[in-house]
Amino acid sequence: MTFTATLHGLLLGCFVLLTGPALAQTAAPAPASAATVAPKKQLQAVRITEAIKLDGLLDEAAWQQAPVASDFIQQRPNPGVPERHKTEVRVLYDDNNLYIGAVMHDSSPDSILREMTARDQFGNSDLFCIFLDTYHDQLNGYNFGVTPAGVQYDARYSPAGGEDFNWNAVWDARTSIRGTDWVAELRIPYSAIRFSRAPEQLWGLNFARQRKWDNAQFFWNEVKPAVNGFVNQWGDLRGIRDVQPPLRLSLTPYVSGYVNHNPLNAEGTRRTTTSFNGGADVKWGINESFTLDATLVPDFGQVQSDNQVLNLSPFEVQFAENRQFFTEGTELFSKGNLFYSRRVGATPIGFYGLKAGADEKIVRNPSESQLLNATKVSGRTKNGLGIGLFNAVSKEMRATILNTETGEEREVTTQPLSNYNIAVLDQSLKNNSYVSLINTNVTRAGSTYDANVTGGLFRFNDKKNEYALDGSLVYSRRRGQVFGKEQEVSDQDGYKYTVGVGKISGNFTWDVNHGIESDSYNPNDLGILFGNNNVTQRLGVAYRKYQPFWKVNNMAFFGQVGHALLYKPTRYQSLYFYNGFNTTFTKSFLQIGYDLTYNAKTHDFFEPRTSPLGEYFVQVPAYTDFVAFLNSDTRKQFSYGLNAGIQHYAQDERLNRPRRTRYSFGAYPRYRVNNHLTFRYSLDWSQSNHQIGYVNGGLRDNEPLDQPFLGQVLLGRRDVSTVSNVLSVAYTFTNRMSFTLRTRHYTSTVRYADFTTLQPGGHETPADYQRPRDNTYNAFNVDAVYSWWFAPGSQISLVWKNANSPDLQANEFTPLYFRNLTNTINTPHNNSVSVKVLYYLDYLAFRKRRA
């Protein structure tokens, strides 16, 4: 991931990138090209023998004896300018820890912004952080940061995962404000990082500071936004000698208890149930390079609820991953985008196909597969070879069907015992390059089909890190029988390849890409692909102005043209042209921009849901899609984001249809009451008029399709109105204790005007179809979370979750929003209250206490 992409994320307020190694300062280097890596600074770490008290004061004599890293260089909003308010950083070490002491000078205490937030969130706050590349491969690194309020955050960097803020380590920090300065003191145990057994370490190093008062970021070793890469722009840390990677062994057991109330449970069954769970996470440093992470009998009941939506598309909905075990330390497994972690513990493959017979009803049908365990081993050798192994096992899932006459129950398997496995080899090369090999495998008990995907990836940069060649080749294979249909075999082999070349550094960049996904390519048992059978090619260009000029801080233009064919048979699909622009003003820090896309007439082969592809397609008229957005200054007590869009279609002359249109609007205000309490609200609204879409899939339970339309593709002209409201409240008591409340109401209303049957070649004929298909879908969730990190790595969490049952309202057409909201609130809701306690047990700390 390029650092320019990181900068764009920073401007959007998603996260703050700050880095910088410290060094005993040398004379300032001569000016260099904006697309050339700055000379590397060096800092000498000092060994200590006396203990350091972590209090944010830096009053031990050892701090005064260490070389100082200073003379930071601004990275935004004005790259290359020396800092005006000095930053001074020192590094100490002993046999067990690395210590970092930093003093951030400022003009006044009021200039030091320090909003209190939960861990890994920055808010409206200053920031200091240290970056470490412990194998000095200039590709992979660690980030440890702290705000003046003592809020900690950590992250990992890799070519595959970019900035991974889901990664968490056990370390500590203290801060203080002294006059016009603020001070940060960090202690990073060697058990939190990985490094070699070399007698003398050479680590990549950078420090960074964010001064929120003027929205400025500074790096100790200059990081140029026009240079491709981030870790390759760090300096060096020297002087760490005779330290050994410690035995990294920790156990985090948990206990949890739940009280669930489900008013929809079948008659004769308990509607309020309780459950108690126990398990553990284990972390073991196999050696100085590799770590094993395992979760035994995991409990994910407290993760944030999914944002359920009404899906009218031919493709599945991709949900965010909120389970910590699957979000942290997975950068190797993300290579090639072949791993979609929500497949592990997903809805059983027979869940939707379960049917009750005559005089029967389904009384239990679990919607999630239960995981028995999950394990991952990952690391990187001193020669830059990354190795990752992942394995998870889910138990056999069964549904229960009750005979209403006899009272007898029978069980039906909805998913067999399943094993999920990933193996990755990733070799780092010179010039920020790499080659990778990844294999994913799903093995199911019995005759149900197994799946295997193998892919090779590469990226080669030139010596100047100015141009790059990249690509991939992936092969997928399925063998076995379709679940529940022993007479149907699922044997299938397919492939995918991509190749691209481009200019990756400088103000002006470009890339050309080509790819093919065969008609039988299918990675979806452990990955996600929305549609195969494609041949695509794309040309992209971009120009970014990083230096402030006139009244703006920066500016970026983007352009792209893309073309797609059906792979088999070879037929035209689509052609598009894209232009985008964004800029941030100098004084107000108001960001504005737009995205403009022109799509030529499209042949949609996926909307008809027919197989094989090629004969049937829906004709989509040419259209223009325009979206404009603006984001206000996030330093203000009240800030907001706004966007508005319109899709305007060409006239569809067939069947004398009205012109299609789509309008959208989004508003995202945020009000920070004080440094502890913040309210956030988001509104997303869209209105599609005269949309043409597939209808057969809209049947209600046990409702047969009209006989005259059996075997035909039925399309409908419809208006779709969708509104999503999310209100969040966050109160942070201390930097280790917080409370959050999130409520979401989503409603989508569909109204049909007329129907047609689709003929070969994209032709449509009017259909005398009378059955009503209008419906409204509502989803409502409440997630309330109290969290207290009472010790490093140890947490108590109390969670209340409330959710309606959207399927109950799928048949009721209700176009009025507030009536929908009232109906949704008044329908039966499932409620869950849970308490979970995790306690971090570190072998090294236990051994010290025993000694």
- According to CATH, what is the class of the domain at 3-238? Mainly Beta
Alpha-carbon Rg, integer: 29 Å
Sum up the overall morphology in one term.
globular
Estimated helix fraction: under 10%
List the quaternary state of the chains.
Answer: single chain
Return the CATH architecture of the domain at 3-238: Sandwich
| Count of alpha/pi helices | 5
Domain Carbohydrate-binding: 55-209
Pfam families: CBM9_1, DUF5916
GO molecular function, one term: hydrolase activity, hydrolyzing O-glycosyl compounds
Keywords: Signal
Give a short synopsis of this structure:
By secondary structure, this protein is mostly beta strands. The strands form six sheets. It has a 24-stranded antiparallel barrel. Strands 1, 3, 6, 7, 8, 9, 12, 13 and 14 form a nine-stranded mixed β-sheet that branches. Strands 2-4-5-11-10 form a five-stranded mixed β-sheet. A hairpin with a 5-residue loop joins strand 33 (571-585) and strand 34.
Topology:
Elements: H1 3-11, E1 42-44, E2 46-47, H2 61-65, E3 73-76, E4 87-93, E5 97-105, E6 127-133, E7 141-146, E8 152-158, E9 162-164, E10 172-178, E11 181-189, E12 203-211, E13 216-219, E14 235-238, E15 249-261, E16 272-285, E17 290-296, H3 324-327, E18 360-364, E19 371-380, E20 385-394, E21 397-403, E22 409-415, E23 418-429, E24 433-444, E25 450-461, E26 467-479, E27 481-482, E28 485-489, E29 492-503, E30 508-517, E31 534-545, E32 552-566, E33 571-585, E34 591-599, E35 602-604, E36 618-620, E37 623-631, E38 638-639, E39 641-649, E40 661-667, E41 670-672, E42 677-694, E43 713-734, E44 737-758, E45 764-766, E46 775-791, E47 794-804, H4 817-826, E48 829-838, E49 841-842, H5 843-850
Parallel strand pairs: 1-14, 2-4
Antiparallel strand pairs: 3-13, 4-5, 5-11, 6-7, 6-12, 7-8, 8-9, 10-11, 12-13, 12-14, 15-16, 15-48, 15-49, 16-17, 17-19, 18-21, 19-20, 20-23, 21-22, 23-24, 24-25, 25-26, 26-29, 27-28, 29-30, 30-31, 31-32, 32-33, 33-34, 34-37, 35-36, 37-39, 38-41, 39-40, 40-42, 41-42, 42-43, 43-44, 44-45, 44-46, ...
